[in-house]
Each structure stands twice: as structure tokens, then as C-alpha cells.
Amino acid sequence: MNFKLRPYQEECVQKGLEILTDERGRREVIVAATSSGKSLIIGEIAKRLPEGKVLVLSPNVEILEQNLSKINSFGVFPSVYSASANKRETEEKLIYGTPKSITYEVFKELDIKYVIVDECDFSSKPNSEMVTLLKKLKVNSVLGLTGSAIYMENTIDGSVPRIMTQVKNAFFTDICKVVDINFMVANSFWSDIQYYDVFDASKQEILKLNKSGSEFLEESQKSFYEACDLKNKIVNFLSRLPEGEDALVFVPDIFSAEELQKEIPNSVLVHSKMNKKLRKEYVEGFKNNTYRVMINVGTLLVGFDKDTMTNIVDASASNSIRIYIQKIGRIVRKHKDKKLGRIIDFAGNYQRHGHVHDLNYDYIEGYGWGLFRGDVLITDVPLNSGKVFTKEYLRNGGKVKLEYAFGEHNKGDCKLPFGAYKNRTVKELYYRKRHYLKYLYDSGFTHEDKELERQINSIFKT
Questions:
Q1: What is the pTM of this model?
Q2: What does the alpha-carbon distance between residue 260 and residue 263 come to, in Å, rounded to a whole number?
Q3: Which of 202, 205, 441, 457 is most deeply buried (CB count within 10 A of its CB)?
Q4: Residue 404's pLDDT band (boundaries 50, 70, 90)?
Q5: Cα gap 228→144, rounded to integer Å
């Protein structure tokens, strides 16, 4: 490779070499935001490692092909060992593969010495296919790379974002280097972005969370889309795009996407259920400007890049900070012909999650790694709890506690008069089935027993 590494990329390479050559065995993660050059970092690590083949595992063939395209653009041409890609190449020192193809026997036959897991947040949850494979292979040290080191975990408090190295039975045990959004923005490595918040807040109540609080129910997303007349609003916006500008459009379901596409000239639709060959053809057509608009349902959140893309139209509401980061990441790459990227937010995601520029990872002594929005902790705090924990609070030894005190203001003694938990008190359900109380609250629970209603509401109302 003839590319000169940026200083932070060189630091990532050095960290990767340190981990992979450590005979004591380490499983650590480099967190590197979109456009930080993960493919370049991986290629340089492989180049500098001592003798021995390097296996880069991607969670699926789509991400493998996307990452392969990127590393090829740097003049690096690895072997590919993946049945899904119809390739079983073994000649090069650097080999890209997928978990289903790399069996124990294949691994030994290839004589792999080093393993790197790309997009490791996708694939390394405890007991996942990738983790089962890596444990069976008994690799000494493993390096992971990701742009978003977060898992969503369901608890009695609802859905909670967690740092991936801090969940129970985590395969990767620590974060060794962070190149986060905050850093990329501060050093002008990201394109400028501009939000247009056109969310109809009066329709917010249509969106209903699932029982864990992790995401909005699909039917409620469809209802919101229709109630806000988003098809016509999107068509109107796209009809006024300046000559030469394109757009990636997120919508909540396939039917809505199909109806929208009928109204938009020179557009294509991609979704996870369509023929993979056709989807690839459409994506490539959008990248090379054959198509001006690409409508997307539940895909293209990781690995898809088009440096010149100027607009994201977001009409798909999400309660997930992880999905939000991935969406915005599609428009942040710099290009000499692009002044800035625009996010047209019809879905309220900006109001829910804030500006991505404010997101940062930080290590707090006595607490550990956390994802923060400015100074406020996001990870370890249940979604929609309304609780606020600051960096200063954590540095001073504060703990993340979410207990709601029952007292004179709320005795919690009302009994549920219906359902599977009939005759259980609010207090008992809070400690044993809190997710159910949260589900009732999120559903707009009302009852003729107003004290019961009050007791449930007072727990969650901020």
C-alpha cells in the first residue's frame, strides 16, 4: 500500500499488532467511527504481522463484499474463502471469510495464525455463531473492529444499551482504542452535516414501544407514516432536489416503500427480502448514479458508502441509538464535490437521540467505558427511563441506580384486576415483572381504578 496513514490510524495499527502478537491471549476491540478507514487499518495490520496467515471474519457475505471492495481500492487483494461468495481462495496471506464457511477443519488446513473480526458488534454476542466458531478454533488472541460497540439488552427495567465488552459472558473483554464521532468531527475528517427537523410531534403518541422498550412496534410505525402523510411529503421534497443531488430514503415497511417508489422517477427499492443479486445490482446502480434515489427498508445500515451522497430522508422512526448512528453514518464521508450532507428527519429521530456530533465514548475511572451524549451517559441507562447520570457524577464515585422508591407518595399496594398477573400488587410486579408495568404505561394504560392508574404512571413518569 502506498497510502500514508493518519496518526490515529497508525495508533490503531500499533494497537492491533500489540494484541494479535500477545502470547498471553487477548480479545480486544478497536472502536472506529464511519469513514475512519477500518479497511485500511486491517490491511496495514495484516501487512506488518509476522509470518502466518491472517483471517478477517465478516458476519455475512454482504458485509464481506462491501469490505472487500474498500480494501481492493487501496491496492490490497486478499483471498476470499466463503461459500456464499462462491470462492475458496487460499493463496494470499490475508484471507476474508464468513463464519459458516470457516469450519474447524478448514481453519487448520489454511494454517491461520491471526484472526480479526470486522463489524464485531454484529456477530460476537455471547453464544452467537461467530463466538461459537472462535471458541472452537481456540485462537490465542483476537482483534475486533466496529463503529458501534453497543449491544441492546433486555432487562426488567426494559431495553438497555450496553458496551459490548461489559455484558455477561462477553467474548471481547476490553476496548483498546477509540476513534469516535466526536474525534472525527473535531479533526474535520467528516463531511459537514445539517439536520432539518420536520417531525410532526403531534403524532408522537401513535408510536408504541414493544414490551422491552427497544423499538417501536412495526404496525405503529406504519400508522405513524400514514398519519403524517409522509409519502406525499417525501415526494414533494425529492421533486425539489437540485440537479445533480441524490437521496437515500428510509421507510418503515416494504408496502410503503413500493407505493413511494411508484411516485419517484429514477428510483430503486432495496430491502432484506429481495433477491440478493438484484439488490446488489440496484445498490451499484445508485453508487454509479444510474439511479438518483434509493429507497431502503431495514438494510444498508452498515458497510454501504457513497462519498458523493448529499441527502438522507429519514421516515422510519427508531428508538435505537445504534440504528440512528448507522443511518447518519451513510452520509458523513467527505468528497471534493460535496459541501455538506443533509438529513431530512420526518421520523423524530433527531429529537429522540440528538446530534450525532455530540456522541462520544469515554473511560471513567471506577466506572469503565460508556457511550455519552455530550456529558450525559447513554449506556447502562434503560431507554425512556428519564434518568440522567453525568460524567462528573460518575467520576465522583456515583453509581447508576434506577430504583424507584415506594413510600407515602406511592404505596404500590393496588392490585391488578385482570390478566396473567391478576391480584398482584403494583409493588410486587415492579420487582418481578417490571417490563409488564412498563408495557402498560407505554400503551397509554387507563382504568376505572384511578389510584391503580396513578401508581403505575408515577413509577415511569419523569
A1: 0.82
A2: 6
A3: 441
A4: very low
A5: 41
